[in-house]
Amino acid sequence: MANLTRADLEALPKYVPGRSPADLARELGIEEAIKLASNEVPYGPLPGVVEAVTEAVTNVHRYPDMGVLALREALAAKLDVPVDRVATGCGSVALCEHLVKATAMPGDEIIFSWRSFEAYPIIAATAGVTAVKIPNTPVHGHDLDAMAAAVTPRTKLILVCNPNNPTGTFLRREEIERFLDTVGPDVLVVLDEAYREFVTDPGVPDGMDFADRPNVVVLRTFSKAWGLAGLRAGYLVAAPEVADAVRKVITPFSTNACVQAAALAALRAEEEMARRAALVIAERDRLTAAVRELFADVPESQANFVWLPLGDKSVDFAKHCESNGVIVRPFAGEGVRVTVGTAEENDVFLKVAAAF
Ligand code: PMP
């Protein structure tokens, strides 16, 4: 058969989701496997979410509100910005895609650290945009000076993931401020804060503190602390013109009716979200201390996962964990990302890790 798709797709890396625990349990003949691979929070949906979705589902023969007004208004009120500065999408990964689509043409450049979120290069490649990857510092963080120095007249977008996935490393207020001043106002800078709710270090600023600069976009998700990974809800705050441009290029109705209802319900359960995030944070700090006893150079994490820089041993380590019923996320030749689970899950992981 003739090749009906783009020739360059073959060379494109695939987005690798965490393996299904049911699948692994079946393979190993055990009752339950533990998944610490996708940075989810392990405590189930927030109170009110299931009821809201159950209610919304009774009306799914109708299109949802394309303007997503109730949810955008709730977000705008929470973040103290006008509603025209808020856009929502089918996960923050889709919003990333829309931001690239709204800013860059084939041949233009976008800059991000490497390693950072694995979707960034895929989004760049499918948009025909040149990905300029700036290597992380030796301590696994963003090299902001090198990123700023890489800006050319073709640069349209810079993606700064803070805290960084998969390394958990973080940027401080003065670093971001200096970076934004150096880059200037002509390039859009996206502060991808998928893990913002797990940040405890007061030196790590809320991206909203920079959101009044017209070239800054704050990107967040309901997938992690808010517990809606399976429903796909992300949002951004940007200058009205940028938010408008995103809404223009977005797939119509991509924040669906159930998602709108669920995200609103989740926002109403903010206190419970924070209580759960605090449990994750306490476990993160315990897990970090414990893995530091086993492995060298584990960076401090401000997210809900821990990075083990195991280099060439990364894939072997992940295989060892899987054969013991624990799914973690290897990045071949670099490291392994371990999502913080419940205390019991983390204990099982630590036992398995110690046996490696
Ligand atoms: N940004 C970062 C840094 C992430 O780690 C993720 C999820 N892995 C996302 C964005 C996308 O999240 P979602 O599409 O589920 O909102």
TrEMBL record:
SUPFAM superfamilies: PLP-dependent transferases (SSF53383)
Keyword DNA damage attached: no
Catalytic activity: an aromatic L-alpha-amino acid + 2-oxoglutarate = an aromatic oxo-acid + L-glutamate
Highest taxon of source: Bacteria
Presence of the UniProt keyword Transferase in the record: yes
Family: Belongs to the class-II pyridoxal-phosphate-dependent aminotransferase family.
Assembly with partners or alone: Homodimer.
Full protein name: Aromatic amino acid aminotransferase
Source species of the chain: Actinorhabdospora filicis
